[in-house]
């Protein structure tokens, strides 16, 4: 596969000062290390991964983070809610899923020590065994097991794949046979498409068009079209890239078929994120000599003679400083990174002009705390007809080492239903307005109304709203109810054609490297795995620039079914001859 900059995927996986006198006091991008000094700008998953890999290889690393370590993946304690020696209630930006097809992030988790765990933080992952598709309008909900079916074949053939996927879709979601056949065939087309076709055709095809969504049932569209776009990546469905959505759907299918997964499809942490992961990670990195500057915001990068000479930062007291290092890893989210990509940097690295135009959307969490257990499912719930594309998970069932009443809050909270709002622009059912036009209290009422229409619509109340004790909305969202609401943590999305705008980890500035889920990665979507993978790519590029003989960080390729490799090779010939994929012409019933 050749990307827009002429860099092959294999190459991507393999590796892919002086003018500030008087501006401010020099910062120290140091700790111990012999490989040189590195300033990591941003302390989310990408920044912490880069710091981890570099510190293990002898570099002196300092991380600059404006708010708190962990970025979008951190826990956010609800200040002032703890009583009687209990911790504050655990809040978060939104729940997270550790998909079984992730490879790089699980490797990092194994290398973070955790007391009593032979495999470190990785042992804090627990399996979500169910998925609940909740329908509105009086329809019974579908509770689906997430374990691979027994008797899976050792070898897949196109015919067998079509039969298995069609049967699974028909039986699980009760779709009409002809729609199940269409979905199975479209997935076979994607699985057998060569890399060139994926980038040159499917990248410029919308996911609805790829799945032939026009004229299909509402269930087909909401489950298979809207699900992978709005719910998983917050991308507007009408222009979502089939390339990105196809990769995710492909890996989900393979994992469900027992192929290539590092673990079960759906896993979550067995404690609040900071307790299970971020705090142990910080302790481990400090032990490796990594320095942290928390509350320090990055404001600018100074370019001198084609290199980054310094990073302009502001400390927690508002004082300006200049940070000097041998190398810089920009691990800021793209909506923050483009603010520090100034004219001098854009002149030195013109490709960042396109990256600065990448689109972002709101995707934010709302915590609902109840005075009794609320086990909606032992896993995630997708509310099929919710206009705000809601998903949720009940936390208490996955935290066996914690008792909500004994450990958190004032003793009245027994469970937390963690809800993610993926669509902030669609009118709701209660107020008839989008979420970003409502006050926080109205957002809560609207979410409860949408949950009620799904969970309490069959005469058997599942969610008792009278048991709600309190709620917590991600504080990154501010100004709701006013004319200019703001979200400090937007999510990069993947509309058609956006791959060419995504930068590589290596830039034309020799000592500047990029890490984040907007950077090109094997998994082409906003995720913890992409953040981790791109940090590894940035580290490898830095090692190359430094002439280091340290071993390179492993960046795993996505699983590829060996049975389909010959079909992909044949498709490459078809694509070069401007012919469709061989399975794209099979008559459909």
Automatic annotation (TrEMBL):
PROSITE patterns: TAT (PS51318). InterPro entries: Amino_oxidase (IPR002937), FAD/NAD-bd_sf (IPR036188), TAT_signal (IPR006311), Zeta_carotene_desat/Oxidored (IPR050464). GO terms for molecular function: oxidoreductase activity. It comes from the Bacteria. Transmembrane segments: none annotated. SUPFAM superfamilies: FAD/NAD(P)-binding domain (SSF51905). Gene3D superfamilies: FAD/NAD(P)-binding domain. Residues 45-543 form the Amine oxidase domain. PANTHER family: AMINE OXIDASE (PTHR42923:SF46), PROTOPORPHYRINOGEN OXIDASE (PTHR42923). This is Uncharacterized protein with NAD-binding domain and iron-sulfur cluster.
């Amino acid at each position: 596969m050749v990307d827009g900059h002429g860099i092959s995927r294999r190459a991507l996986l393999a590796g892919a000062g002086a003018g500030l006198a008087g501006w401010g006091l020099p910062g120290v991008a140091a700790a111990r290390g012999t490989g040189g000094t590195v300033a990591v700008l941003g302390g989310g998953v990408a920044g912490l991964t880069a710091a981890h890999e570099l510190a293990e290889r002898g570099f002196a690393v300092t991380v600059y983070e404006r708010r708190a370590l962990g970025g979008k993946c951190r826990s956010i304690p609800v200040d002032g809610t703890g009583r009687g020696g209990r911790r504050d209630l655990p809040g978060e930006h939104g729940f997270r899923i550790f998909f079984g097809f992730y490879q790089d992030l699980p490797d990092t988790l194994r290398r973070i020590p955790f007391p009593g765990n032979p495999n470190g933080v990785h042992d804090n992952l627990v399996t979500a065994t169910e998925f609940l598709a909740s329908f509105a309008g009086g329809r019974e909900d579908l509770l689906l097991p997430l374990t691979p079916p027994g008797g899976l074949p050792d070898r897949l053939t196109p015919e067998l794949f079509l039969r298995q996927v069609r049967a699974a879709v028909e039986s699980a979601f009760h779709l009409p046979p002809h729609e199940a056949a269409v979905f199975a065939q479209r997935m076979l087309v994607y699985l057998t498409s060569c890399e060139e076709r994926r980038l040159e055709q499917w990248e410029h095809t919308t996911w609805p068009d790829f799945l032939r969504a026009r004229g299909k049932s509402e269930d087909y569209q909401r489950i298979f079209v809207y699900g992978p776009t709005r719910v998983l990546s917050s991308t507007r469905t009408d222009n979502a890239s089939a390339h990105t959505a196809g990769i995710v759907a492909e890996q989900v299918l393979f994992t469900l078929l027992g192929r290539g997964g590092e673990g079960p499809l759906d896993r979550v942490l067995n404690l609040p994120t900071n307790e299970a992961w971020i705090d142990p990670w910080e302790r481990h990195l400090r032990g490796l000599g990594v320095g942290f500057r928390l509350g320090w915001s990055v404001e600018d990068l100074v370019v001198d003679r084609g290199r980054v000479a310094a990073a302009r930062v502001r400390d927690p007291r508002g004082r300006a400083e200049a940070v000097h290092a041998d190398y810089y890893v920009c691990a800021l989210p793209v909506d923050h990174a483009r603010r520090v990509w100034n004219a001098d940097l854009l002149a030195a690295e013109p490709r960042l002009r396109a990256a600065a135009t990448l689109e972002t959307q709101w995707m934010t969490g709302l915590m609902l705390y109840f005075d009794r257990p609320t086990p909606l499912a032992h896993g995630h719930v997708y509310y099929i007809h919710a206009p705000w594309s809601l998903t949720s998970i009940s936390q208490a069932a996955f935290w066996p080492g914690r008792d909500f009443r004994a450990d958190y809050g004032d003793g009245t909270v027994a469970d937390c239903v963690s809800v993610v709002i993926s669509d902030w622009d669609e009118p709701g059912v209660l107020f008839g307005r989008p979420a970003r036009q409502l006050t926080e209290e109205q957002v809560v009422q609207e979410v409860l109304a949408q949950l009620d229409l799904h969970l309490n619509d069959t005469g058997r109340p599942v969610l008792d709203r009278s048991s709600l004790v309190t709620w917590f909305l991600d504080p990154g969202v501010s100004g709701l109810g006013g004319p200019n609401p703001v979200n400090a943590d937007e999510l990069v999305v993947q509309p058609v054609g956006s791959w060419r705008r995504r930068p590589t980890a290596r830039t034309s500035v020799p000592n500047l490297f990029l890490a984040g889920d907007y950077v090109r990665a094997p998994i082409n979507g906003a995720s913890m795995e992409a953040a981790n993978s791109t940090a590894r790519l940035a580290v490898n590029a830095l090692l190359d620039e430094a002439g280091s003989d340290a071993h390179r960080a492993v960046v795993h390729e996505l699983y590829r079914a060996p049975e389909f490799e010959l079909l992909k090779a044949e498709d490459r010939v078809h694509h070069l001859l401007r012919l469709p994929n061989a399975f794209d012409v099979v008559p459909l019933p």
